[in-house]
Design brief:
The complex is a heterodimer of chains A (328) and B (481).
Chain A (H helix, E strand, L loop, with lengths): L1 E7 L5 H6 L7 H7 L2 E5 L8 H12 L7 E5 L2 E2 L10 E2 L4 E2 H9 L4 E5 L1 H5 L12 E2 L3 E2 L2 E2 L16 E3 L6 H12 L15 H4 L10 H5 L66 E2 L2 E2 L8 H13 L3 H7 L13
Parallel strand pairs in A: 1-2, 1-3, 3-7, 7-11
Antiparallel strand pairs in A: 4-8, 5-6, 9-10, 12-13
Chain B lengths: L1 E5 L10 E7 L2 E8 L6 H5 L7 H4 L8 H16 L5 H27 L14 H8 L5 H13 L1 H7 L8 E2 L2 E2 L5 H22 L4 H5 L4 H10 L4 H11 L12 E9 L2 E10 L2 E3 L6 E4 L34 E4 L8 H7 L3 H10 L3 H25 L16 E9 L2 E10 L2 E8 L1 H5 L11 H5 L13 H9 L4 H5 L1
Antiparallel strand pairs in B: 1-2, 2-3, 4-5, 6-7, 7-8, 9-10, 11-12, 12-13
Helix pairs in contact in B: 3-4, 4-6, 4-7, 4-14, 6-8, 7-8, 8-14, 10-11
Classes of the chains: A alpha/beta (328), B alpha+beta (481).
């Protein structure tokens, strides 16, 4: 059995709720298939109050073996480093202190969601809660546990980033760990599982043809490419959202709104509106990272000149008004 | 007399601590503490107003769409815009999908597993309940998760994903359902209906909606003993859950699921058997018992501010204390169905006021009442007509967005100056239900509901407290935000 303890702190609980969306097979069957034992999870377990505090104490004393500690939500360090913005109920002890103690016992520590990984939404604006991630504070390595921290199994904190996380991202990494298959080279430069960050959100985007011809949406709800005007950064964002569907068939792009790169640190502070593309001399800043800018501009001008009428018509409509094959 | 701190509560959304004063094994006073503060109202200050649509859903992962809809409504009022009928239908469908999915999650994953506890092993029903509802291993868990996940495909079709969509906008939705989407939506609803009619009710949704009284419900229970609903009713009868967590509550509903200005569930205030009109000007937030920097008296949310201060001497929660016309209010499905004057809800409240049993019954009643409505909404979608209109947001404006989330009345109040958010205030359902004491030392709804609960010496037998707390289906991350 692979024992998992799941705690929540400065977050919304959405990664847990998303996890319950796991399908074919459902979550319980997934756990069964790789021997995952959810020792305690806030939405799933019977143990409450004192019963639960006993579990925590038994882990710290070594009586219960803990394979994986999952934190969902940011670490709340405020106010003034006291952690009083989240005192774990019934214990009088800041959650951040519990986390430090438990992380020493867990063979692996996982940050579930961008809040736990980097601070995330809770760290937006003036970051009133002094929220940070387990091993990152925004883009800076460090966070609660510190730059050099390693789990007893010599792993850094595994950052299953996303806002929220896709259920598969979470069950994949837990299952790999349970089977002993995960190695540090399976993590990317931000310690996110490469299972999903080897892809760009752009891959499999249903709007690709509009992207190719730079046929752009002008407002949310238009079916054209949202990169030029509507703030979409799916060409830079690392995730497989358009390859692995969400809730049966969706993704942000399919839902008619741009990718905001929610798997990345500091996505919560884009320093512009989420749904607008900042431009210099009419050219969007933040182009695909691994392509020379001049090439991109040249190719864009060419493709824009060659845009079929069909795509031009449809890009600024909410549904296809000019179907293929009609005329160009 | 002794005191006991109980927490953390799981199978509620977020973290929660309850302190009780116990005399002769009975709770005589209670204090509810929401122990997590994040500061969304501070985060939103100075942001571009439309970005609130990205931030506010992330207040809560279980009521994410509700936050979206409240935010979009507030911005719509600021813009003076109204979504076209298609946009309203699509929004209703996504919101109802979340709300009903929350009711289902509450019943199967959060509430019922407490009756599978060993504390009840001598009860004649324990074996059946434990087999069906025990946390994680009960036979209902996997079945329910499958049904829930497939039902949530409605959000995949109409909102891109759940939680945290940006599809819900002031002027409608960014998605436009196609003719093919309509057929898929109906298919998902039919599958979900089948699950409800087989597992939850073992009867048609229409028959459940037509239950008119407590007596009616009792004979229904006896004729449908294998349904999960009847299993609950049987336990409720044996444990007298109609006497547990009982208060003579004043109810509020902000109204929800409007199509062309007619809400399917109306807004209103219910007090001592009298229905009256809602006036949101009478809503004020008191911070006498909150860890907040003191302000001059209770404030309407347009005037309110949020400045945390953990050293406030009288504070015991991060939660503020909202009051309606200085009165404590209970919100949720029971309030909503009573204000909608559903005969069963009216009879339940007449007979036994607000209590653990009635809160749970009305959630299941909503499952039965709303699914047929969702089927209607899908049928009324006209794929060739617009789902959204866009309008400019003025640089100076304010707006109120009030809706019903699964757990009750949710309000957003936004003030915009120089094209930026000057002030954003949120009052969530559990802020009402789990509010701390106000300036007059009047306890909040849960604090009142806990009084009189038998918990044994030292409070060691506190499973009744668990039932009461969970009967409100609290969402603590929304509560403080």
């Amino acid at each position: 059995m692979f024992n998992v303890l799941w705690l929540q702190s400065g977050g919304c609980g959405g990664c847990s709720l998303s996890l319950l969306n796991a399908e074919s097979p459902d979550l319980m069957t997934r756990f069964k298939s790789t021997g995952i034992n959810m020792l305690w999870h806030p939405s799933l377990s019977e143990a409450s109050a004192d019963e639960f505090i006993h579990v925590l104490n038994d882990i710290i004393s070594g009586e219960i073996h803990l394979d994986a500690l999952c934190l969902e939500g940011s670490v709340m360090q405020g106010p003034n480093g006291t952690g009083k913005f989240h005192i774990l109920a019934g214990t009088g002890k800041p959650m951040m202190t519990w986390l430090e103690e438990l992380a020493e016992k867990a063979q692996y520590t996982l940050a579930i969601g961008s809040c736990a990984a980097f601070g995330g939404i809770t760290a937006a604006g003036s970051n009133p809660g002094d929220a940070c991630g387990l091993q990152y504070d925004g883009k800076e390595v460090g966070g609660l546990l510190g730059t050099d921290w390693q789990s007893p199994s010599k792993f850094p904190v595994i950052n299953v980033a996303g806002c929220p996380t896709h259920p598969d991202w979470v069950t994949d990494v837990l299952s790999q760990l349970a089977m002993g298959d995960l190695r540090t080279e399976h993590l990317d430069e931000l310690n996110r599982p490469r299972n999903y960050t080897d892809h760009l959100v752009h891959h499999g985007c249903g709007r690709s043809e509009y992207y190719e011809y730079k046929a752009s949406a002008e407002k949310l709800g238009d079916i054209g490419c949202m990169m030029e005007h509507k703030g979409c950064i799916g060409t830079q964002a690392r995730a497989d959202c358009n390859i692995r569907p969400w809730n049966g068939k969706g993704s942000c792009l399919d839902g008619g709104y741009p990718c905001i790169n929610c798997t990345a640190p500091e996505f919560e502070e884009p320093r512009k509106s989420f749904t607008e593309t900042p431009k210099i001399a009419g050219i969007p800043i933040g182009l695909p990272t691994d392509m020379p800018k001049a090439w991109f501009v040249a190719l864009s001008s060419l493709s824009k000149a060659a845009t079929p009428k069909r795509l031009k018509d449809n890009a600024t409509a909410s549904k296809i008004i000019t179907p293929p094959g009609k005329q160009n | 007399m002794s005191r006991k701190i109980i927490g953390p509560f799981n199978r509620v959304e977020g973290d929660l601590e309850v302190e009780v004063e116990i005399t002769d094994g009975i709770v005589t006073k209670a204090w509810v503490n929401s122990p997590l503060y994040r500061g969304f109202e501070q985060i939103l200050q100075g942001k571009p107003p439309m970005d609130a649509l990205t931030y506010t859903p992330r207040i809560c992962g279980i009521c994410s769409v509700s936050q979206s809809v409240a935010c979009a409504s507030a911005l719509a009022e600021a813009q003076g815009v109204k979504p076209p009928t298609n946009g309203q239908l699509a929004t209703n469908l996504v919101l109802a999908c979340e709300n009903l999915s929350d009711h289902l999650t509450h019943f199967y994953l959060f509430f019922m597993p407490d009756f599978a506890r060993d504390a009840y092993q001598n009860k004649p029903w324990h074996n059946d309940i434990a087999t069906r509802f025990r946390a994680q291993t009960g036979t209902a868990t996997a079945t329910m998760l499958k049904a829930r996940a497939e039902f949530m495909h409605i959000t995949g079709i109409l909102a891109g994903k759940w939680p945290h969509t940006l599809s819900i906008q002031p002027g409608g939705t960014t998605t436009s359902a196609s003719a093919s989407d309509k057929i898929q939506l109906l298919g998902k609803l039919t599958s979900f209906r089948e699950f409800l009619e087989t597992e939850v009710f073992a009867d048609t949704l229409e028959n459940i909606s037509q239950l008119t009284s407590d007596d009616n419900l009792k004979s229904w229970m006896e004729s449908h003993p294998q349904s999960d609903f009847a299993q609950f009713l049987k336990v409720a009868e044996d444990l007298e859950l109609d006497k547990l967590g009982k208060i003579n509550a004043k109810f509020m509903s902000f109204g929800v699921y409007s199509v062309d200005d007619k809400p399917f569930l109306p807004q209103g205030i219910w007090s001592n058997g009298e229905l009256s009109k809602l006036d949101t000007e009478l809503i004020k937030e008191d911070i006498s018992s909150s860890w907040m920097l003191s302000q001059n008296g209770a404030k309407h949310p347009y005037q309110g501010n949020t400045l945390p201060d953990p050293d406030q001497a009288d504070g015991y929660s991060w939660c503020k204390a909202p009051r309606y016309n200085e009165q404590v209010i209970e919100v949720g499905a029971l309030a909503r169905q009573t204000i909608a004057e559903h005969p069963l809800a009216l009879d339940l409240v007449k007979n036994s006021q607000s209590n653990v049993r009635n809160r749970v019954i009305t959630r299941l009643l909503e499952l039965a009442r709303i699914i047929p409505e969702m089927e209607n909404w899908v049928k009324h979608i006209k794929p060739d007509e617009p789902f959204q209109i866009t309008a400019k947001l003025p640089d100076e404006a304010e707006g109120q967005g009030i809706i019903e989330a699964a757990r009750g009345s949710l309000g957003h109040w936004i003030r915009i100056r120089n094209g930026r958010i000057l002030n954003y205030q949120i009052i969530a359902p559990t802020t009402w239900n789990f509010s701390p004491r106000d300036k007059d030392d009047i306890a909040g709804a849960l604090e009142q509901a806990l009084i009189g609960t038998v918990v044994g010496e030292g409070g060691n037998d506190s499973v009744a407290v668990q039932h009461i707390v969970r009967s409100f289906d609290p969402c603590m991350v929304c509560t403080v935000h």
